[in-house]
Write the structure tokens for this entry.
Amino acid sequence: MHYGLAVRVAVFTVAIPTLLVTLSGCFRSGPAGGEVPRNGGPAPAVAGTVASATPPEALGRDDEDDEGPTAPVAKAAPTAAAFAAAWARPGLDAAGWLEGVRQLCVPRFAEQLRTVDPANLPASRITGPPRATYPVRDGGGQFAIPTDRGTLLVSVADIKGRWLVTGNDFKRAGQ
């Protein structure tokens, strides 16, 4: 099943490096306990462990994407909705389907979608508006979009002033 492979590749190429970057901050040396740094600033925050069935992929802007304008937050949900509408078209041939979703994605994710066979998609139509599952802030967010057979999760990021899709996942109804 090509769709499952594309999702796994997206998770491993985006989520694991993000996790490693996050964890690297946990091992930095700094003041012990709740001591205040000598510069008089606030004590560093100590992060806990967060478990999630589907971690958001590439939420936020990284150093490479900080250059350029910032996209309006209000345009994040319409981008997720447009991707969902382009994604839920199992009747198209692979080339036509890819052309519809590619323009809404970051290049790396668009490349991963090349392996998707639209005939294997688990949904054929969108049944409701996007709902934020992770707040849109720091240049990224995630939306849940209801379909005829479950929920499509779409992660978006502000890339140089434009909201683009960085990954997706699908949760079948009843799971």
Summary: The longest helix spans residues 2-24. The helical segments are 2-24, 76-87, 94-102, 107-112. The chain is about 30% helix and 20% strand.
